[in-house]
Amino acid sequence: MARKDSPDDPQPLDGKEAASRANRSLDAALRPPKLDDFVGQQRTVERLRVMIGAARREGRTLDHILLHGPPGLGKTTLAMILAEEMGRPIRVTSGPVVEKASDLAGLLTSLQEGDLLFIDEIHRIPKTVEESSSTRRWRTSASTS
């Protein structure tokens, strides 16, 4: 009788999946986990430190933050640090992945209170998604609750 694989049994990875996991591990190992470890952009770091401190003191979540600038300045790293510093989970996606309004609505409704959402390349979300009536309805209901 053939033995059924248990969830604890290691499963062989194809080359693509193995490379993807290795890249994620390397990426995680290279990213600084705390603001104290982040090098550069001192004004930005100090502003974020003030925002984190205020949110902690007041027992609330962070306000909305827009990180902008050319590639390679640490926007994704800072988003990960914010989640770590606040002790909250972070959901990460990319603007081009959000192809239709239901993608965005599904993402937004899956968040729990206090979760952080980082949308890399947010400027690449299609206009049809930005301007959809279902997205406007969600924003309206979220802002009044």
Write the layout of secondary structure elements.
Blueprint (H helix, E strand, L loop, with lengths): L14 H16 L11 H16 L17 H12 L3 E5 L6 H9 L6 E5 L6 H4 L2 H12 L1
What does this 3D model show about the protein?
The protein is mainly alpha-helical. It has a single domain, classed as 3-Layer(aba) Sandwich (Rossmann fold), CATH 3.40.50.300. It is about 50% helix and about 5% strand. The protein has helices at about 15-30, 40-55, 75-85, 100-110, 125-130, 135-145; strands at about 90-95, 115-120. A two-stranded parallel sheet has the order 1-2. The longest helix has 16 residues, at about 15-30. The radius of gyration is 19 Å and the shape is globular. It starts with 14 loop residues before the first helix and ends with a helix. The model is unreliable at about 1-5 (pLDDT under 50).
Structural key phrases:
mainly alpha; Rossmann fold; 7% strand; 6 helices; 145 residues
What's the gist of this structure?
The protein is mainly alpha-helical and 145 residues long. It has six helices and two strands.
Provide the CATH topology: Rossmann fold
Secondary structure class reads mainly alpha
Strand content: 5-15%
How far is it from the N-terminal to the C-terminal residue, by CA?
56 Å
Number of beta strands: 2
Order of helices and strands: HHHEHEHH
Major β-sheet strand ordering: 1-2
Low-confidence stretches: 1-7
- Can you say what the CATH homologous superfamily is? P-loop containing nucleotide triphosphate hydrolases
CATH architecture: 3-Layer(aba) Sandwich
The biggest beta sheet reads: 2 strands, parallel
Q: What shape does the CA trace take?
A: globular
- CATH level 1 name: Alpha Beta
